Amino acid sequence: MVVACPTPIRSENIGAIELPIIDLSAERSEVSKLIVKSCEQYGFFKVINHGVPEDVIEKMEEESYQFFAKPASKKQGAGPANPCGYGSKNIGFNGDFGAVEYLLLNTNPLSISQRSKTISNDPTKFSSTVNGYIQSVRDLACELLDLMAEGLWVQDTSTFSRLIRDVDSESLLRLNHYPPLLKDSLRDKNTSPSSLHPPQHHHKNSNSTNNNNIRIGFGEHSDPQILTILRSNDVGGLQISLEDGLWVPVSPDPTAFCINVGDVLQAMTNGRFVSVRHRALANSCESRLSMAYFGAPPPHVRITPPPELVTSQRPSLYRPFTWAEYKKATYSLQLGDSRLNLFRMEADDDIS
Ligand SMILES: C=C1C[C@]23C[C@@]1(O)CC[C@H]2[C@@]12CC[C@H](O)[C@@](C)(C(=O)O1)[C@H]2[C@@H]3C(=O)O
Ligand SMILES: O=C(O)CCC(=O)C(=O)O
Ligand SMILES: [Fe+2]
């Protein structure tokens, strides 16, 4: 019945917002309208009744905890991240750092099965868990993309989802672990991995953003791909950048997925949807674990908006490009750099 809280509400005392929460079991045309509105206004929304089975999420989370609880020397066996693999503190190739360790995986099953050998003592179990999770979140991403196309009155409703269903899609799965802020100072005294266990409390906000206490886990950026499906444990940390320049914490909800528009979808909707900058802070006392699926196109398909989204009142904002070109630009830049502007019609920068 209740479909969404369509307007983010800024919470009076903690400065958090509630993103629109969209119930996917509600009436389809209502759902698609709310999704479109959220993508136009905030580029972010949460979904509930999303159809991803709880046990699929729990198993994936458990494998992630197990991996990050290993000694550093063992984890390094799955690295370095180039860009896939295990990374700690270094992000990308251009000098970005954060208080985060991560596993970045190509979602191709063959690649997962090979990587698993360096990640888990039971690679078969790890692969099957990861493949199961990817399959479920990909289905969710495709469903959301179809709903978006419907809400935008695009006739070919598979126009976006087709790209991530393609066998050559370059979608990624990223597991991020943000160790607690206080752990570093205690490390020499106590090296127990107990801090990796899922916290017992509910809805913690990483609201400790005064200058003495802030620690950037994953710096400000937009996601380059089509759509991101993010699930986190109940430790806050994600913040989104609103137009007024404020960083606004998003409250964590392990039962929901947080969805955000990527740069490619901004281009494919001819700028109607916005790929919003966000970041993640490490929490003082507890481990944040997030699992992000980035739905990406195959490398050589031309990215252009469907005809319905280009009109004389709204001419093409971006020149056509391929994901291979976009990825090259992305990896040549720093995390916080803006890439989509390089592809604007009026841009004459040479990115080759
Ligand atoms: C510094 C970088 C890391 C990143 C590639 C980049 O050069 C700029 C974008 C970064 C980002 C952000 C969203 C995703 O986490 C990611 C996998 C992606 O596709 O773009 C990362 C890249 C990465 O960590 O490899
Ligand atoms: O951990 C998070 O909540 C955000 C991570 C993120 O933005 C990313 O991996 O691209
Ligand atoms: Fe991101």
UniProtKB/TrEMBL annotation:
Pfam family, one: 2OG-FeII_Oxy
Chemical reaction(s) catalysed: gibberellin A1 + 2-oxoglutarate + O2 = gibberellin A8 + succinate + CO2
Enzyme kind, highest EC tier: oxidoreductase
GO MF terms, alphabetically ordered: gibberellin 2-beta-dioxygenase activity; metal ion binding
Gene3D superfamilies the UniProt entry points to: B-lactam Antibiotic, Isopenicillin N Synthase, Chain
Presence of keyword Iron: yes
Region ranges (Disordered): 184-216
Keywords (A to Z) from UniProt: Dioxygenase, Iron, Metal-binding, Oxidoreductase
GO BP terms in the entry: gibberellin metabolic process
Metal-binding is among the record's keywords: yes
Residues covered by the Fe2OG dioxygenase domain: 168-297
Domain of life assignment: Eukaryota
Enzyme Commission designation: 1.14.11.13
Annotated family: Belongs to the iron/ascorbate-dependent oxidoreductase family. GA2OX subfamily.
Entry protein name: gibberellin 2beta-dioxygenase
Annotated organism of origin: Nyssa sinensis
